[in-house]
Here is the input.
Amino acid sequence: MIEFSVVDWSAWAPGLTSKEQWQAWARAPALPQGDDTPALAEVPAMQRRRIERLGRMAIQAACWCEQPDDAGQVPLVFASRHGDVARSMELLDSLGADHGMSPTAFGLSVHNAVAALYSIARGHRGNYLALAAGRATVEAACLEAYGLLADGAAEVRVIVYESPLPPVYAGFADEPDPYYAWCWRLARADRPGTRLSLGWGAAGADSPAGVLPHGLDALRFLLAGDPALT
Here is the structure.
């Protein structure tokens, strides 16, 4: 078992842009719906134009958790089950039709592209990584963050972001998949904040999907102050 503190958080989803809205949502959770996109005013317009909706969401959540004194050095863990799979599907469709593939589009489709875009736009010079771990993506991200804290980092930001699967993959979805993104600032367990513990054991049968995807349920768990989440 490991322990850490969540010293701050931010989140963005359609119709949910403030902490007050998210805290009210946690008391009566539902799948976010809507077509709005973050303004992402923190990123210059020329760079912002290259970022798709999913990337904007993730970067917006990350920006909202920045601290004035972190000097762009706080380690980052970007975590998403599927990343920008819609962009990848567009590239595959282009190949299937014997059309050329845009090098820029390919570069922006890889799993660490959002992290790289954030790093460039915000002048971040610290360590960052991108991961995917199925329904355990949040837990894997927190475990990576814990390792970075153990290596001496004062804080680590964990950014979790997801979007709907393209129709061709929809039949493989094992949980709801709305648009959402959130960021937690993690620190060692002796720091002020919401202390969480993470344990693990032998895997059993997969539990049925709930109303919320697990990644979004983890945010609800934090905000609602529930005693446990499995």
Summary: Residues 42 and 63 are 7 Å apart (CA to CA).
